[in-house]
Design goal:
- There is one protein chain.
- This protein is an alpha+beta fold.
- It folds into 2 domains: about 30 residues; about 150 residues, no CATH class.
- The chain is built from 4 helices and 7 strands, in the order ααβααββββββ.
- Strands 3, 4, 5, 6 and 7 form a 5-stranded antiparallel sheet that branches. The protein has a two-stranded parallel sheet with strand order 1-2.
- The longest helix is centred in the N-terminal third of the chain and has 18 residues.
- It is globular and about 60 Å long.
- The termini are far apart.
- About 10% of the residues have low confidence.
């Protein structure tokens, strides 16, 4: 009787561990860290509004994850793209650190153009114009007065553009002061 009870207890424990929180046999989905930097969202919102205006987008569609350094511009690096002024060196280091991994975007953008954050990789449905934006976390200097951001817009085939953007914060907000861009 005692042996049956021990066996039953072990079976129940195994079942419990297997189904709870991924258990030993389950495959637990890794939760990505969220990108929660409100100042970063302010920079990205400013850039997205400007870019969407150029493409005449009425809706900004964003990939739900930030891009990592290895995914940017098909291997293009910030330092190969533009010569960084001294005042952006700390922001560049922070940018390189933050882009080591992908982060989950939150709905913290303050764009003038309506936006949606896509949670799955899926094509834009037929009949809907526009593409999908892919953005990086923003790298800042210690005082958060200089920022660096990457934005890539893919609208299919050889349609799209990307950019590394150098931003400076002044009394009126974030302003673009340089960087480099390309088109597909």
């Amino acid at each position: 009787m005692n042996e049956k009870r021990t066996t039953l207890t072990l079976i129940l424990a195994f079942i419990f561990l297997s189904v709870s929180a991924g258990g030993i046999c389950g495959s637990r989905k890794n939760k990505l860290e969220a990108y929660a930097d409100s100042e970063g969202y302010a920079v990205l919102s400013r850039l997205l509004d400007s870019d969407a205006k150029g493409w005449k987008n009425t809706v900004i569609r964003l990939d739900g994850l930030t891009v990592s350094r290895t995914e940017m511009a098909h291997g293009e690096s910030l330092r190969a793209c533009t010569e960084l002024p001294v005042e952006f060196q700390a922001a560049a280091k922070d940018f390189e650190d933050k882009t080591q991994q992908r982060l989950a975007l939150r709905k913290m953008f303050t764009t003038k153009v309506h936006y949606s954050v896509l949670r799955e990789k899926k094509a834009v449905p037929d009949g809907i114009s526009g593409g999908v934006y892919h953005v990086s976390p923003v790298g800042f200097d210690q005082d958060k007065t200089h920022g660096i951001a990457f934005i890539d817009y893919v609208c299919g085939g050889l349609c799209g553009a990307g950019s590394f953007n150098l931003m400076v914060k002044d009394a009126s907000g974030w302003e673009y002061v340089g960087g480099c861009s390309w088109q597909y």
